[in-house]
């Protein structure tokens, strides 16, 4: 994977799904299965990193006191127990 161009999230997920399908089918020689597994682990890490990057960029717009305010993703008032008066 070091010499490959960086994949976007969708490409990495498609490649990971293909690897899982090949491994689940069960007729892959052992050495190839190990290579596929290692590649799958790298793709899984790449997808995780990309999801974390996107999560940091997402902001929710929340209405507070009649005004729209931006809040970081994952900090909704419902989750934190606030705003339930």
Automatic annotation (TrEMBL):
Protein name: Exodeoxyribonuclease 7 small subunit
GO biological process per UniProt: DNA catabolic process
PANTHER family named in the record: EXODEOXYRIBONUCLEASE 7 SMALL SUBUNIT
Complex and partners: Heterooligomer composed of large and small subunits.
Function statement: Bidirectionally degrades single-stranded DNA into large acid-insoluble oligonucleotides, which are then degraded further into small acid-soluble oligonucleotides.
GO molecular function annotations of the record: exodeoxyribonuclease VII activity
SUPFAM superfamilies recorded: XseB-like (SSF116842)
Catalysed reaction equations from the record: Exonucleolytic cleavage in either 5'- to 3'- or 3'- to 5'-direction to yield nucleoside 5'-phosphates
EC code: 3.1.11.6
EC primary class: hydrolase
Gene Ontology cellular-component terms listed: cytosol; exodeoxyribonuclease VII complex
Subcellular location: Cytoplasm
Keyword set, alphabetical order: Cytoplasm, Exonuclease, Hydrolase, Nuclease
Pfam families in alphabetical order: Exonuc_VII_S (PF02609)
Tagged with keyword Transcription: no
Similarity field: Belongs to the XseB family.
